[in-house]
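PROTEIN ENTRY
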Amino acid sequence: MDDYSTKIKLSAEHLIRVEFPEKALELDTLVSSQVLSFSEVTKVRAEIQLPTADDLVAHSNNIGFGDDRHNSNSVTNNSTTKKRKTESTNHEAISGTPIYVFHGVVPSNPLITTLEEKLKPYIFHFLDSIAIIKLWIQLMIPKVEDGNNFGVSIQEDSLAEVRTLETDVTQYLDLTYKYLISRGELVKKVAKYPHVDDYRRSVQSLDEKQFVSMRFIALELRNHYTSVHDLLMKNLEKIKRPRSVQTHSMY
């Protein structure tokens, strides 16, 4: 168990001293890059690859033209039997309104997908690292004693701050999941009601909102990496040695 504790302590200090500053700088570069620039918002508004109302009208007209030609040919044929007329009447009753059949897949927004692929590794790394850092701080907390607990209070405050940031970052994964569900539902509405332009525009607006959210996540992850590094480095000695050895003399 002592070897395991030593391993956790070494890993935690390496994360704080080396990896967290590196990740913060990487995220700062990503936030400053073109891919997360607000100039990319216009590119986020990808056109939904689904039939429009005009497509349905054109398809319906084509079907109707075919039916009219079929009917004209039937009128000129004077030798049609009564049974044939009955079958033709039943066929017309069943045919109803022409249906536009869509073949293919409605893709996700490519720019949003790219951003998710870039940011998810940072989210996973942060959560995994925070789990190690929390355990390290807990292992550094000494047994309960009266007095000389200032260092212990620093440990507890640092642990509480780290846990708060962990909760915030966990919610970023929920944000991505909820976006995909919401977008899928809106795309279904676009497919079902192609003549309602607001549904089509709502998908584009949702993509814009998710782009801004992705930029916000990148900024917050950069800040979290920076703040954890700063907090723990400033209090590193107190976290590692919360109680100082003091010798009191009566004379």
Q: What stands out?
A: The mean pLDDT is 80. Residues 12 and 69 are 79 Å apart (CA to CA). The helical segments are 2-32, 41-44, 53-76, 82-95, 110-140, 150-192, 197-234, 236-240.
